[in-house]
Amino acid sequence: MTADDDETHRGSCLCGETVFEVHGPLSDVVTCHCTQCRKQTGHYWASATAQTQHLRLLADSHVRWYRSSGTARRAFCAKCGSTLFWQADAKPAEISIAAGVLDGATGLRTVGHIFCADKGDYYEIPQEGYRRAQWG
Ligand SMILES: [Zn+2]
Ligand SMILES: [Zn+2]
Question: pTM for the whole thing?
Answer without folding.
Answer: 0.89
